[in-house]
Amino acid sequence: MAPSVPQNPTPAQALALLPKLSDADADLRYMSLNDLYNTLNAGASTFLTNDYHTSAKIIDGVLQTLDDQNGEVQNQAIKCVSALVLKLPPDILAPFVHRVSNIQTKHSVDTSIPSTALRTFITAFPRPLPGLPPSGKSQDAYSAISRVLIPRLLGYIVIPHGLENLPSPPPGMLEIGSEKGANSDAVDVLIEVIRCFGPMLQDPEKQAFQKAIMSILDDERTGSVIKKKAVVAISILAVYMSDRLLSTFVSSTIESFRGSHLTLAKRRLLITMIGSLSRSIPQRLGPYLKTLAPFVLSALSEEEYEEFMEELAEDGAPNLEIEEVREAGLVALEGFLSSCSNDMRMFTDESIEAALRYVVYDPNTATDEDDEDMEGTQDEDGDDAETNGFDDDEEDFEEDAAMSDDDDASWKVRRCAAKALYAIISTRSNGDLLDNGILYDKIAPVLIGRFKEREENVRLEVLATLASLIRKTGEGVSLLSPSVDEEIDFTAEYASRSRKRRRVNSDAGTFDAPGVFSSSMGLSSPAPSPSPVSGPKADLARLSPAIVRGVSKLLKQNSISTKQASVTLLRDLVLVQNGGLSDSLGKVIEPLLDAAKSSGATTTGSASASVGGAAAASGSKMRIEALQLISAICDTHSSKVVAPYIGSIVPSIVTAIKDKYYKVSSEALLAIESLIKILTPPRSAGSEQQRKLHVGNIYDAISTRAVTTDADIEVRQRAIHALGVLLARTSGSNNLKLLTTTNKTKALGVLQDRLKNETTRLSAVKAVDLVVASAIDQSDVQPAWARGVALELGAQLRKADRSLRGASLAALRNFVSNSVVLASLDDDTVYNLAGMLLPLISSTDLNLLGPAMSILGKLVKRCPKKVVDTNLKNALCGVVLSPLGGAVFDSYLGLVKIIGDQAVGQPLMQGLLQNVGVSGDPAVVGKAIGTLLVSGGSTVGVKINDFVTELRSSKDGKRKCLALSVLGEAGLRLGSSSPLEPSIFMDHFHSKSENVPRAAAIALGRAGAGNINTYLPIILSNSGKAGNLQYLSLHSIKEILQHAGKAHSDISPYTKEIWTQLLVSSQAEDNKAIGAECIGRLTIIEPKTFLPLLQNYLQDPTPTIRGMVIQAIRFTFADSDEAFDEVLKPMLIKMLTTMLNDPNLENRRLALSTLNSATANKSDIVLPHLAQLIPLVMKESRINTDLIREVQMGPFKHKVDDGLELRKSAYETLYSLMENAYTRINPLDLFDRVIAGVEDEHEIKVLCNLMLTKLIVLDPEEMVRRLDAIAERFRAILAFKPKENSVKQEMEKAAEASKGVLKVTVLLHNAFPAASAAAANVQGQAWKGYWEWVGKEFKPQFTVVENEVKNQAV
């Protein structure tokens, strides 16, 4: 605010500024207006409400300056209008609009000032929103607009507002003049009226606007710019049309298409208009497309094309009006395909044919269409095939372009056709046209043939479209899957080390992942991927040679945009195929290396667009893309393929590493890692002398980058990681020729030094991880270095950075897993390292707890008496008080077993008995004590009989449970040598304690799993008895089956008897869940016997039996093996289909849960047949009104939805499928269901919000198209206000729903900021209005959510 403006100005102070507005000095007039603007903004909302005199004076002054000769003064006057109208008395608004709309500019050069002032007036007020009451100021503004501005625009009064004998308004601003047609500024005002006050417009006003707009479009004198604005106006107006008005409008449009006097210009406008409507109101226009789409497709039909070509042959020059009609038709077709995809399914063939017809349309070039259709599919068997549609003399595109006519506009038609093909690929690929081969059979060959396109804008669209198809082919596929090169033998050292590490990991527990490091290190050389027999990848493989031939030509062009798009296309091709250049690498490697070395080049041609809609191409961007492609080639092709070109590749990458631009240097360091893997064993491309030279050059480059201080931090971090890769790949004494001992020592010193630097610490930890994981002998890790680094890694465990702690723990895991490295650590280092790990032995972070205990287990083996001290004992006793389970608990038991095996378990046993005892969960503590009891034997100070005595003598239920758990675990581990009899456990089945019988049953089962012949017959005899004894026996059987399946114990003599007993026992209501799990586990053990029986039981007439079978089948998926899968594969899909069609509601819910589990655990069986199952899931996600009933609750009636739980399960299944198999789901159907779910019950609403956040990443293009529909649902949720007498739960649900919507809103805005901008675009109007409304009406809550999203991102 200006210093001269007071904090609380009065009308008199504003009045005092007006005389200066007539001053001769323009600067003084400007400053006065500026002070007036600040005064109006600083004034209270009632500043001028009751001061009509001052208001009139200010209006006079502002209107006077609107006609000022100085443009800056006029602009400041416009700003004053926006501040003034919010302070004026409501009664003065209408006269103000009248005066502004009738300004006659005498001094101003800019004649658009009146319309600019009117638009400022309109946009100054809060926008009303559909379904919500407008604010008082909006109501006042609309009243003035309806009474004054709309009649002024149209030239007649539309709604009298109760007034009679009103004078006729002056000629309308939208009336078409005698010479120039309609006024462009008036159309701008009309657009703002509709955009800002559309929800408040009444039907007569909408009809009048529609009539005025159509008259503008029909008039031949109106210029094309104004007609385009009129199309925008009608598209925005359609958003607010009632269904009746829209139907009438569409009917009149259809009649116009059918009119006998339809000119080309009129036809183009009608096509443009419905194309624009498809973007502004896709859901409402969709049902009309079955009538409207044929009019557009007829303009692109084969018949009209033939007629045009005949006329062209006669006249020799194309008709530009016809080309404009085609361009409009293709733009409209793209809008139909992208915005109304489901409604356009019936026109799929016609749409594809039209787009293909005009993507090759080039009247200035004589071509044979039949040949062109086949281009790109010829075999590479001769010189003719090498041309791939290019001239034999390999003319540059620039030379072709020189022959084109300056007036040739056919390139616009081709570009629009390519965009239409892009829309088809982006909306109809997943589970649709991609799977049935149409995209590759019809579209891809034509796109490849258009690589020879002479206009760069079109060529870029063609490349982008084909790249999109390739990416769609590879979605959901694991791109890099290393496999062993058949021609490369591992050395004995590598093989021995690999086998040894696998054995160590299996002992260490679940948290050791064998093969992770060898895969990431690229120890195996990729073999050529087997060519798929059928499907999209097979189609791509068939066309791949033609694509590579075409791209190799494009890479030689001068245009950076074309080269960059070609490199991107080639990279996508390589990644999707996991190779694919084995036979043609020589064609692309030279131009590719040239692109990687190019710098300082400029963009040629009209290359404002680039592949994927990214920013304009640049030399550096192209170099980065080229380096990424080189890296992908090295990672996906065998050494034999790449070896001939290593001599050219290495110098290029080394040069790029030294580049001053950090992004190029950083990408080059990633590429050099791939080269290191090729040059070093076991891949070893090239001769030994060449490899030594190249490795030396690489070492010099990356070591310099790792230590230099003037390099960007990202470059240094990647250089450090590359150094780790180099050291890891040259490990072993046999590789000293590649990397000398001196250089290796220096490199290890660099890594140790970088560990102490905060900015490079994390990269150094990961590099050390690679080095110690790959160490073969003492030459790889010197003892002093190993001890220092190990302690430094241990020190990192105290840091606050969680990613650093996790990486340090992973590195330490490899330290202790590799016997060579572990031998380098002395006892003191091991002891200190164990002490550094103790703070992690806590339940506060279970992700770190498991690996930490695995590492401690190795350290205990290395130095048991020193490591197992009081501190470790207290930590282990403390952590077992928490509820442990799963892999973490397995690691805990593994550590306890190691302590017992090393005969140092007595202090821990005393701690568990005295300090823990019954304070923790008896099941958890008992397993720990039982494990230690068996592994420690006589060294732990207690015997099994002590616990038997405790069980019999103790009267405390918790102590009995603990003793039972200990004895059950001991019986399991002792096996047949166990002295325990079943009666010890069964005597407690009838205990009065609530928990003891169940603990006894579980302990009986665990002990029985170790001694089946003794225990199982007794358990089966009890399972036939009704009541609680049967229930407890099922728990025992479950434990036996669970361990029998893992240990492969021989229970085959008892399986049939178990099956029979389980079928009988599971009929009881309390036994269903446990019985189903037992049946499932038994089926895993003998799938050939019991899976067919389960399939037959799915047809049983009893719903409870079918439900039990469905649950049993679900239990089989998580723990089964390959033998089970072989039996399951032929029958799974049929079983799932039967389940999902079950007439019982609860059984269908269980079936959805079973499908969810099958997708997660048996994806290779389920996913190829997902198209049969998805419609059944979609069906259950819809609200079934037949399942909604009214229940009388006192004086109130309450609706109960019996289908809610089923719908929740359907949405949970859709969520799982979306994450695991999105490429096999039709995105249009999925988006429909997710958006519909936003309005469903609270639990479904929350899940759908989460799905929307995932879909932002999975399918951003479709998400942008759905923003308007999402905005409508979100606005309804935020506008909902619970009743004042609502219960607390309902209030909390409403608040949570609003917060969830606001969070998704922020995420959507962050992902698509352009969609929330206020640009004049017919698509996204609802989202823009919603975004502005949320920012104003929910500012406090919105700010909180924005901060939460930012913090989560950080």
From TrEMBL:
Domain TATA-binding protein interacting (TIP20): 1165-1334
InterPro entries: ARM-like, ARM-type_fold, CAND1/CAND2, TATA-bd_TIP120
Annotated family: Belongs to the CAND family.
Keywords annotated in UniProt: Repeat, Ubl conjugation pathway
Pfam families: TIP120 (PF08623), TPR_CAND1 (PF25782)
PANTHER family from the UniProt entry: TIP120
Region (Disordered): 365-405, 519-538
Composition skew (Acidic residues), residue ranges: 367-405
A biological process term (GO) from this entry: SCF complex assembly
Protein name in the entry: TATA-binding protein interacting (TIP20) domain-containing protein
